[in-house]
Amino acid sequence: MPASRSRLSTYRIPAFAIAVAMLLGVGVASVYGVTTLRQSNAWIEHTYEVINRIEVVERAIRGAEASARAYRLTSHPEFRSQYLAAVPEVERATGELMMAIRDNPGQDARARRLREVARAHLAELQRLYDLQETQGDAAARLGTDAALTLRQWGEIDATGSEMRREEQRLLEARKARSATYADRLVAIVVLGMLLSVTLLISLMVSVSRENRRARALEQDARGAAQEMALSMAKVDRLSHQRHVLSRYSGLLQSCQTLEEIVQLSIETIQRLVPGASGRFYLMRASQDFQESVAVFGDALISSPDFLSANDCWALRRGQPHEIHGEDGSLMACAHIDAGKPVPGTTALCLPLSAQGAQIGLLHVSAATDALDHGEAVDELLGQLAEQLGLAIANLQLRETLRTQSLRDPLTGLFNRRYLEENLARELTRCERRGLPLSVLMLDVDHFKRFNDTHGHAAGDALLSQVGRLLEVGVRSEDIPCRYGGEEFTIVMPELDAAGACARAEQIRREVERTTVQHLGQTLGPVTMSIGIATYPADGDTPAVLLQMADATLYRAKAEGRNRVLHASHA
Ligand SMILES: Nc1nc2c(ncn2[C@@H]2O[C@H](COP(=O)(O)OP(=O)(O)OP(=O)(O)O)[C@@H](O)[C@H]2O)c(=O)[nH]1
Prior knowledge:
Blueprint: H1 2-74, H2 77-100, H3 105-135, H4 137-142, H5 146-254, H6 258-272, E1 277-283, E2 290-296, E3 306-307, H7 313-317, E4 321-324, E5 345-354, E6 357-367, H8 368-371, H9 377-406, H10 416-433, E7 437-444, H11 447-454, H12 456-473, E8 479-484, E9 487-493, H13 497-512, E10 516-518, E11 521-523, E12 528-535, H14 542-558, E13 564-566
Parallel strand pairs: 12-13
Antiparallel strand pairs: 1-2, 1-6, 2-3, 4-5, 5-6, 7-9, 7-12, 8-9, 10-11
Bound molecules: guanosine-5'-triphosphate.
């Protein structure tokens, strides 16, 4: 394409110059032809004029002859006057004829001969006139030399005819030349016009083609620029989305709670998909259904608080499931509204999993345009769901480990470390609010004997049973712990000595009634001794309170076991 364009461009200016030159040539040729034609016509007119003048000369000679003869015959003075007037007319007509043909030597010679013959004839007429004037009419008639007159007339006729023939020949030749000039002129004008018009039309066609091509190229260039701008915008959008996701990954590492994780995920989803709404579901411990833990956005498509794996294609298949409004309801999940999504909206379910185990579901719905905003949005949401699943799994693992580090594995109660951390905090809180706090130390009586009698495993079963009993026997704000061995502690915030004693007595009685099932045998019951110390009367630090409660426990043991004693009571 560029090669043919440049070739045309190269020839266009010379072709235009040729067309203009041809038009100029046609103009010049026309002017020249018209001038030549005019000259030729002038010569033709000249020839007619010469012929006319020959006839004028002949008429003048005949006029003089006729008037002279009439005068000789009639002697009428009128004929005499006519004769006298006709004589100089012959000389004048002959002179004008000679002027007219002076450029043609042949005709000039003939005219001179005509003039001589005419003069000679006039001299003869003058001789007869003079004779008539001097000697009378009869003498003049007798003096007429008929032979001479006939000869002179013959010569005049012959010369005149010769001159007319010559002029006729010249006339024919000039007419022929004039016709040739006219034909050539027409040929030059027609040919020149045809060629130059053809060239100009070719040039116009070529220029208009060039213009069309230029317009098409311009349109292509505009299209390419638009495409470039669009792809730049897409790249910008993609890079922004990648940035949002990478920021999400970074912040996710620092999230400490599920609430933080969910909040961060909601913000990120709404940045990636403007106007998105949806829900976060987590698998319940029972593993049989998903429970909604957070909702975000103005729901385009609602989804229930609980759903089973069968309600969702994504959960069933273990991979993302996207439904466009245009897809119809065939592939729509059972947990979303019937008849949704409608055209123009899209629903996306993303399973949350970690190490191959399903831990939840992310359900997002949005306008289809927003989800198609950059072709990688659903892919980015998929990556977000992967990271979200891992983060939740990590959090759950951390929580399990933390719980394990704070709980005693045998009884399920808090351990001594947890007790020490929380007793100080609860004490400070009660101190600040001017409320009491009681600490109970509990110990199974003669546990060594039980161990020795039934075996260590049976002892473990008993401790586990006592742990469960303590767990259900206290308020939710109390902190039951295994202090070590067969010894337990319960921190009871906001409970005074009397309240603590009543609660301890309840526990003691409960233990007393408790038996243990072990290897098909019913063991027990056992008894328990309990020592109590209460803030502020028995101490104002965790260590003192624990020490006081422990000392009171030993006092209870010493006093016979299976009893409750308070440090402040004697
Ligand atoms: N089975 C079992 N036994 C434990 C555990 N921790 C401590 N023991 C035993 O508990 C017994 C505690 O005995 P002692 O401290 O002498 O007290 P006791 O036999 O309960 O007697 P009194 O407290 O005076 O009534 C020891 O035999 C320990 O081995 C445990 O986790 N499991």
